[in-house]
Amino acid sequence: MSKQTLNFQAEVAQLLHLVTHSLYSNKEIFLRELISNASDACDKLRFEALDQASLYEDAPNLEVRVAFDKDARTLTITDNGIGMSQAEAVEHLGTIAKSGTKDFMGRLSGDQKKDAQLIGQFGVGFYSGFIVADRITVESRRAGLPAAEGVRWVSAGTGDFEVETIERAARGTSVILHLREDATEYLSHWKLQQIIGKYSDHISLPILMQKETWDAEKSEYVTQDEWEAVNSASALWTRPKKDISGEQYVEFYKVISYDQEAPLAWSHNRVEGSTEYTQLLYIPAKAPADLWNRDRKAGIKLYVKRVFIMDEADALMPAYLRWVKGVVDSADLPLNVSRELLQESRDVKAIREGNTRRVLAMLEDLARKDKAPETAEGQDGVTDVVSEEDKAEQAQDAGKYTAFYAEFGAALKEGLGEDFANREKLAKLLRFASTQSDAVSVSFADYKARMKDGQKAIYYITADTLAAAKNSPQLELFRKKGIEVLLMTDRVDEWALSFLPEFDGTPLQSVAKGAVDLGELQDEDEKKAAEQAAESFKPVLEKLKASLKDKAKDVRVTTRLVDSPACLVVEDGDYSTQLARLLKSAGQ
Ligand code: ADP
Ligand code: MG
Questions:
Q1: The pTM is what?
Q2: Of 305, 359, 458, 540, most Cβ neighbours within 10 A?
């Protein structure tokens, strides 16, 4: 192929314009992005070589090299991974395929400052290079292709790029950044090593740099021929917990999740037994915009014996925990496992159950520490005896569960219908507003502890909004009697609660369903009055029934109202008005 000039896809041109016309608080993320691509390329080679070992050619040790040339003002990142054919270079570097980048594009506000900040948080993959370079040259050869079929790709990050055929002996890719005037700081061993340590330490390949030694005569550092690894070169989850700092866990989370915020909690374990695997699971702080998309994939990456197999491994997490991010590395699954095979595997089932247990345990822990230590009292009013260390930890985690619940509580409720085995655990994790608390903070256990003598059920009402729930005429009698009622306003509440007939032996009862029998809490006099009223209003009821024939199943005298003249109720076992609306809006 002789030299060809091609245009970028319109979206790329738009993105590049933004990248090159903004100033950044953290330019340095470009290196994270390029090293991550180099590492992905090595993962891809390792994966393809499972079936075709010859792809390794004569270089079986996968690695990334970072080198700079002060005189030429270039910074070069070289990998010996899968490489790109000419067609692949045109396609992969000329269009945007990455969903993370598309997501980023969708969030652009037009405000240059805000958008620039977004780039730093998301990273925009390969194009991040143009933050520091006014020209990028990529030279590559795909593993398995002859040396004569190498490709050179060059662009100044404006509307177009050039491609041509080159001779390239080495398999893999070199990305050569021609640094801008204001990016001279990256022509420094110390600076590069620092950035690699911050963002790329967890990369499982060695990242090599040339050694530098102090030359006293010239009184400057000189570059040696010898290369040395500047990262730990072992995947983060394969290292012992005690060797990993909190900051490293957080950075790793940001890399795998494309989330800029630190996670609320994580759990890292090696599970041994009949199924062996390592799990590193994170609870994000914020729900993604598409949490409610039914097709949203799980956030778990699957590795088998440290070889990357797939992103979004749905089978490893139940759907209601689709927002959990992390990595599972299995010692048992075959390397060529497919999504179909995953669905059927017994090991996968065991891993999914183990993951679920672990996430619920993390949530239980956050829920336990949700209140600040000063106010942490046992239910019997006795303050728990806690060590200073526990107190400190608790203070740190105070409020996290409330924050978690506001983001993911509704998704968690889906579990009641989906995961019968963990229904009780899930029920304990639920929180609601109530007639005694505007904050969504009342657990079923809290409620039970406040039940009136003789109260036989946990009462709740469902409505579209908190205001509607609170003002419902159905609550009048409960208010008068001082009986707490849980106020449920999530769309899934009604459906979810249909799977939870009771909590810890106490039945759940909707105040909007059927006849409310308050049992012993109702005075004998009131009951008698109601019966009398029913008798004397019989003719009126008959008339009402006749005129509402098509609209109401039944009309009856009730004791549930105090001030309002009438209210609508549904039969026990029928869909409530809220659920009926939900089903209607779903087209059923
Ligand atoms: P992402 O890495 O999320 O796919 P990028 O913008 O970082 O998005 O990279 C775009 C694509 O370019 C990659 O998916 C890959 O196909 C190709 N690519 C980039 N760098 C390399 C590399 N070092 N080796 C092989 N392919 C690469
Ligand atoms: Mg990338």
A1: 0.68
A2: 359
